[in-house]
Amino acid sequence: MHPAENPKTPKNRKDEQPCTRPARFRSRLIFTVVMGVIAVFLVWPGYPLFSSATPLVIGFPLSFAWIILCTLAGFAAMLALYRSDRKHEEDG
User: Fold this and answer.
1) Closest by alpha carbon to 73, among 49, 92, 46, 45?
2) Is 1 helix (H, G, I), strand (E, B) or coil?
3) Domain range for residue 54?
4) Residue 46: which pLDDT band, with cuts at 50, 70 and 90?
5) Which of 40, 43, 27, 41 is nearest to 77 (CA)?
């Protein structure tokens, strides 16, 4: 196999490098949408739907469990964006 045909050989020419700009844009757009949805769920109209204290979730009132869930979802979105950006940095 010729070294240029080896998939593990890094590509040095500009015309052969994959364009990661659309992939980065897509991951950041998804992150922005997820964080926007979380922000809406923490304010009106999302929060009043879960503002009761009667059902307990793991010992917490539903309103507090809802805030914890939204915080964990934001952390997961940020972790996914971090991993996606690291992957794109290594690629190009």
Assistant:
1) 46
2) coil
3) 44-92
4) confident
5) 27
